[in-house]
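Most newcomers find our protein records easier to grasp once they have seen one. Each record describes a single protein and holds just a pair of labelled lines. A learned vocabulary of local backbone shapes supplies the integers on the structure line. Nothing more is needed to start thinking about how sequence determines fold. The record below serves as our worked example for the rest of this section.
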Amino acid sequence: MKPTEMLHYVDHTKLQAFAKWEDIDKLCKEAINHQMASVCIPPSYVRRVHEVYGDKLNICIVVGFPLGYSMTIAKKAEIEQGIADGANEFDMVVNISDVKNGDYQKVEDEIRTLKSAAGNHVLKVIIETCYLSEAEKIAMCQAVTNAGADYIKTSTGFGTNGATREDILLFKKHIGKDVKMKAAGGVKSISDLEGFINAGCARIGSSSAIDIINKQEVKGY
């Protein structure tokens, strides 16, 4: 696969608290020019992005981000407002404390509630793998599958570590056939992009994918 083709898998991301409109606008232009999968942006920018770019962009927002411990009713409201403002996809963070407490059914129920709110829109579930044991990751694969979410996603990019190939292979073994995978956090090289795609990821979350391809001399393509 050519490096430029890898960009079609990327959710082009800008989620810093200090992101200005100029940053978001640049992100959107890049995503359109490179035919990227989506822009993943703060919810507060969705309406303006949709007004400026309309259907030229697939707009993704984060929900309960980055810590996950917002109340379910608040996460649901974020999705409902996001749909009204023009978002198409939602990357929610599970309540990690519930996972650590072994309240897996509570997590599953929340995912199911948010998928119901999202309807035909895509729901990706961030489980923040860096904080979880293998058994907890497997439990989250089952919860995401049972709740009918569209994707399981490794990380927020704000935790202590990001995506690993080992976690993607673990997901692949334990998710249902209709659940896709997204790797995010720590994608820093062409080999990272290619490795996650080849491992079966349908999406890659990255703020630096274009820079990776532009700045590195790639041989053999």
Observations:
- The two ends are 8 Å apart (CA to CA).
- The chain has one domain: 3-215.
